[in-house]
Amino acid sequence: MAQITQAFVLGAGLGTRLRPLTDDLPKPLVPIFQKPLITFALDHLIELDVTKFFVNTHHQPERFAEIFGRDGSPSRPPGVFGAPGGRALPTRGNYRDFDIHFFHEPELLETAGGIANIADSLGEGPLLVYNADILTDLPLARLIDNHVRAGNMVTLALRSALGPKHIALNRNTGRVVDIRNLLGSGAPQEFVFTGICIVERAFVDLLERGVKRSVIPHFLDLIRRGEKFGGIVIDEGNWWDVGNRDSYLQLHRDLSALEFPTYPANDPNWKRAVHHTALVHPSAELRGCSVVGENCTVGAGAILHDTILWPGAQIASQSRLQNCIVRTHRKAAGVHRDLDI
Q: Could you tell me which CATH number the domain at 6-241 has?
């Protein structure tokens, strides 16, 4: 397998579809059972022999420090963007003995702006871009091999399964020919963009620094100019877009019945229903797919049905919660259904 050693994990999104859950926690840090979502992406990339990691942040960047160490939050005053001349100033955290370089965006730069913001810290080789909103174990070695073999400037990982199908791909040439029919090609939009792609340094150098901009106009420009902008369909493996609360709860039900992921996770016990630090009264009941996170307490006679407790949540005695999500350090008492607390 060809090798890519640097990756950019997109962690700056607001997670608006998951509100109010993401009001006080960045979406990449939302727990999946006992493990923050973004750490699956990092485990996946480590398995691919990536050694240099970049993550952009925006909403509550200090929360990343709780996971990745005290240096994972911005060291400059809020509202200051980079250094003179627009050069970004990274801060550092650590995960599995790898340095994580965090780039805070006081104002969201979107994907193209985010990539440009880290350009001065990148090496000359290709960059693997990975959306922190997704959970997947796609066999990305196929993406890397296809990208290198085709000599593409950009290659998208695509799927033909359920999801928003916006990508038109010529299966004979392996080239992307349109996105959302914005070029008016009329080509069938048959594929879902997984949120993972590879871009060459030459593409990064096309991006303007310090400007908020989507990556889509740049992709369309590649198509117009006839550049090598490819895609590969990877329907093997699992892939979820952790979008709204319903998909978040369903994801836990799906994972309960699956052997996931195919790559090694840093915590082999991440899927346990009750964290070893949690205190659950012997008379309390956990029904369906319920999860009790780190340092949670569940009082006597409480019943949780398809309910997820984030770290530090406290459930009063005799409470009845069904299809609920209780956020970090929040308290819940009484009878609730289909509620984010």
A: 3.90.550.10
